[in-house]
Structures are given as C-alpha cells and as structure tokens.
Amino acid sequence: MTATLDALTADGRVVITFSESAVPTQERESFITFLKAEWTARQSRFTEKDAKALANDVDSAWWRKNRERILRSLGEA
Fold it and tell me: How many domains does the chain have?
C-alpha cells in the first residue's frame, strides 16, 4: 500500500489529506500538533527581542523557584 499526502485548495483554504490508516494514531496526533505549533509561530508577531525577554523571565522565575534545591544538592555533593 502506498500512502499519499494530498493538498487541495478550495474556497480560499488548503486542505491536507492522507489516509487515516497510513499513519499510526500517535504519529498522526504528533504531526497535527506540529502543524498547529508551526502555524501559530508563523502567525505570531513575537519579535526576537520579545523572545529573549521572555526567555530571561522564564530563566529568572525558574532560578527563583529552584535556587534553594539546587544549592542544597550542590552542598551535599
């Protein structure tokens, strides 16, 4: 059996189709999740500067949350 992936356009929309049996359920869900994430990223107006600021905020919050645990574990080493 040869699986095909088709992309059709109709009414200003693109529809991607493939046989449900061609891909195991978990892989199919992962593929759909990937497409949704990629779509969201491409629609975002998030700049590189915004991303760096968010990364710094996340890093800072993680360190505040985990600082004592990390320092304790280093002291036990």
Answer: 1
Which residues constitute the domain of residue 12?
A: 5-76
Distance CA 56, CA 62 (A): 10
Write out the two tokens for 66: 């985990």
- Please tell me the distance from the alpha carbon of residue 76 to that of residue 1, in angstroms, as a whole number: 58
Per the CB < 8 A criterion, the answer to whether 28 and 36 are in contact is no
pTM value surpassing 0.70: no
Q: Could you tell me which residues are beta bridge partners of residue 18?
A: 5
Task: Calculate the alpha carbon distances from 75 to 53, 58, 61 in Å.
Answer: 31, 25, 22
What number is the average pLDDT over the span 43-60? 90
